[in-house]
């Protein structure tokens, strides 16, 4: 290319740029495009959501949470090969159990439990699912019209009974937890998780449509699962493999702490950030008037620590839970009211920004 040709190309490019449409950068257009935008705030506060790993804590009923992570297919396949003992034995029918096509009767030392199809027109089938020797209990299936199939667990000693939603029951190795594939008989399939206490099955989690939307997990596609420990099972959808870890709140937050990094409060809640013995970070909060002597209302694991310089040197402690992002800002050098802050986002939109009192410093001053 000679010098004359080069000059002509440059002139043509200049004309094209001068006549092309310009990006609108008026204040009005920016307000419309970026109003309440998380990504505008991050330019000044250096807040960047980390989506490099999938880690969700699902709050369960009573004393348990479920820590949900993704695993490699190889990890899932290993769990799939673990042989488990058949817990429900359908070949054993204790003498206390009488079963026909239309009725069942279970006699215990305390009371007699029975049901017949003629007793309720919504009950359209019954079945004997089996005997659980270790629990000295039997399981009877009641299939209700346009309702979740219910498995009735009946203890033969005292007649204690409880319902477990779903079809096939898959027990953990120590029979403390029960997974089931649940459905409502019409158009929803999901999962249910129960634990055994006082000879009864008590629910930890039963998924629904709202939960699928919240955690972005297709619980309806899980199907059978495979327990790889007493508190952990693996499942898969078409393209993803998951580990469900059942976390005992009492044991977890009392016994696994190495050091407390943040101990704070405001008028509504108490918040602690701990470093655990395995080196990871944990977030816990209590809704007042509860105290740290009570079980936490929220526990999040696998937090991240990031150095920040928003108000002098400091650190951010970040914890993700589905669509939510919790950030504790520990602005070490500032003397302003923003010394210790809680920032909460939902779907990248800030929904809370509030100051906290540092209880560690208050306790030192006393």
From TrEMBL:
Protein name: DKNYY family protein
Organism: Winogradskyella rapida
């Amino acid at each position: 290319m000679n010098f004359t040709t080069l000059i002509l190309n440059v002139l043509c490019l200049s004309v094209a740029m001068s006549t092309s449409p310009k990006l609108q950068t008026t204040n009005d257009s920016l307000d419309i495009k970026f109003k309440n935008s998380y990504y505008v705030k991050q330019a000044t506060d250096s807040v960047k959501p980390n989506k490099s790993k999938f880690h969700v804590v699902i709050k369960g009923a009573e004393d348990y949470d479920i820590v949900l992570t993704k695993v490699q297919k190889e990890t899932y396949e290993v769990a799939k090969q673990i042989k488990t003992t058949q817990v429900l034995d359908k070949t054993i029918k204790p003498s206390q159990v009488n079963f026909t096509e239309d009725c069942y009767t279970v006699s215990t030392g305390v009371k007699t439990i029975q049901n017949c199809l003629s007793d309720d027109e919504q009950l359209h089938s019954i079945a004997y699912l089996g005997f659980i020797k270790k629990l000295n209990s039997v399981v009877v299936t009641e299939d209700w019209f346009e309702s979740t199939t219910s498995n009735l667990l009946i203890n033969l000693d005292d007649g204690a009974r409880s319902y477990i939603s779903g079809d096939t029951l898959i027990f953990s190795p120590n029979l403390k937890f029960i997974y089931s594939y649940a459905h409502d008989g019409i158009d929803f399939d999901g999962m249910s998780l129960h634990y055994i206490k006082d000879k009864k099955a008590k629910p930890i989690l039963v998924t629904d449509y709202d939960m699928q939307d919240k955690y972005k997990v297709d619980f309806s596609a899980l199907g059978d699962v495979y327990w790889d420990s007493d508190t952990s099972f693996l499942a898969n959808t078409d393209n993803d493999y998951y580990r469900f870890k059942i976390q005992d709140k009492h044991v977890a937050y009392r016994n696994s702490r190495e050091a407390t990094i943040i101990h704070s409060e405001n008028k509504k809640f108490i918040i602690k950030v701990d470093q655990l013995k395995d080196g990871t970070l944990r977030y816990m909060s209590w809704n007042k008037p509860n105290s740290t002597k009570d079980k936490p209302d929220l526990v999040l694991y696998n937090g991240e620590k990031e150095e920040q310089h928003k108000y002098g040197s400091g650190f951010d402690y970040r914890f993700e839970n589905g669509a939510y992002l919790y950030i504790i800002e520990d602005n070490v050098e500032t003397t302003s009211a923003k010394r210790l802050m809680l920032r909460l986002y939902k779907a990248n939109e800030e929904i809370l920004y509030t100051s906290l009192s540092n209880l560690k410093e208050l306790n030192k001053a006393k």
